[in-house]
Amino acid sequence: MRKDTLRLGVVGLGTVGTGTVKIVQNHAAMLSARTGTSIEITAVSARSRSKDRGIDISAYAWEDDPVALAKRDDVDVLVELMGGTDGPAKAATEAALSLGKSVVTANKALLAVHGQALAELAEANGAQIRFEAAVAGGIPVVKALTEGLAANAMTRVLGVMNGTCNYILTRMESAGLPYDTVFQEANDLGYLEADPNLDVGGIDAGHKLALLASIAFGTQVDFDAVALEGIGAITIEDISRAADMGYKIKLLGLAQMTDAGLQQSMRPCLVPASSPLGQLEGGTNMVVLEGDAVGQIVMRGAGAGEGPTASAVMADVCDLARGIDLPVFGQPAASLAKAAPAVSATPCPYYLRLTLRDEPGALAQVATTLGNSGISIDRMRQYDHSDADTAPVLIVTHACAPNDLDRAVSALTQIATVVGAPVALQIQNV
Ligand code: NAP
Ligand code: HSE
Question: Which CATH number applies to 5-134: 3.40.50.720, 3.40.30.10, 3.30.70.60, 3.40.50.300?
Answer without folding.
Answer: 3.40.50.720
